[in-house]
Amino acid sequence: MNNSEIIKEILEEFKKNFSQKNLDGMKRFGINVENGFGTSSLFYKTLAKKYKKNHEIASMLWETGVHDARILAGYLAEPKKLTIKQMNEWMRDFNSWDICDSTLMRLFNYSPFAYDLAFKWVNQESEFQRRAGFVLMAALSVHDKKRVDNDFIVFFPLIKKYSTDERNFVKKAINWCIRQIGKRNIVLNKAAINLSEELLLSESKSAQWIAKGALRELTDKKYKEYALRRGEKLIK
């Protein structure tokens, strides 16, 4: 079976498993369900197991523009084969938070280009493109264990700059970013709390919302303990 036939087969799998109920549920959570089939997370895993890692197939799936195909592309693509050009092209195609987050968490997060691209993407004007930069920062805070504290503190000026962005999916991503940085270790926990307290003094309602959400989590005893344990593991 050639690649075109595999793509056709995958699209048929989506059609056979169409779920209006899932689409309605996704829509309620702010997901763009245009050109989608309502594929469940469990079925994505089934397809990923069946078709395995295949960067060419993943790229072809993305080009279909089908919502579900683009989610699956993040499962099948290979981080080491990503180029900056491809990552930028896919980023510009993000039109829904679930495609954005899934692609970043499952794929882009593991590319050696991710850290530098995060700085650039937050400067994008469009909502999901700017969100992509901050979600990538959040993902790197969790998964990139080799980076030192200052590699994350240098995100702070950009967090402050865009904390006034009132758009829902941007401010939620910034909140997520601060919380993940603050849970990396106890030093970054204190730094993220200080940053949040600074944002709390802003006249921007968005910045205040971001700060309040971050402080609720980062000042909680169990998260401080988590940050301490995580920091010890990173040092080891």
Q: What report would you give on this structure?
A:
It is a single chain. The chain has helices at residues 3-16, 20-28, 41-51, 55-63, 67-76, 84-93, 97-106, 114-121, 127-143, 150-153, 156-162, 168-182, 186-200, 205-218, 221-235. By secondary structure, the chain is mainly alpha-helical. It has a domain at 124-236. Helix 4 (55-63) packs antiparallel against helix 5. The model has no long low-confidence stretch (mean pLDDT 95).
* Main beta sheet strand tally, sense and closure: none
Task: Decide which structural class fits the backbone.
Answer: mainly alpha
Low-confidence regions: none
Give the N-terminus to C-terminus distance in angstroms.
Answer: 47 Å
SSE series: HHHHHHHHHHHHHHH
Radius of gyration: 19 Å
Instruction: Please report the total strand number as a whole number.
Output: 0
Indicate the percent of residues in helices: over 70%
Strand content: under 5%
Tally of helical segments: 15
* Basic shape: globular
- Mean of residue pLDDT? 95
Q: Can I get a quick summary?
A:
The protein is mainly α. The protein contains 15 helices and no strands.
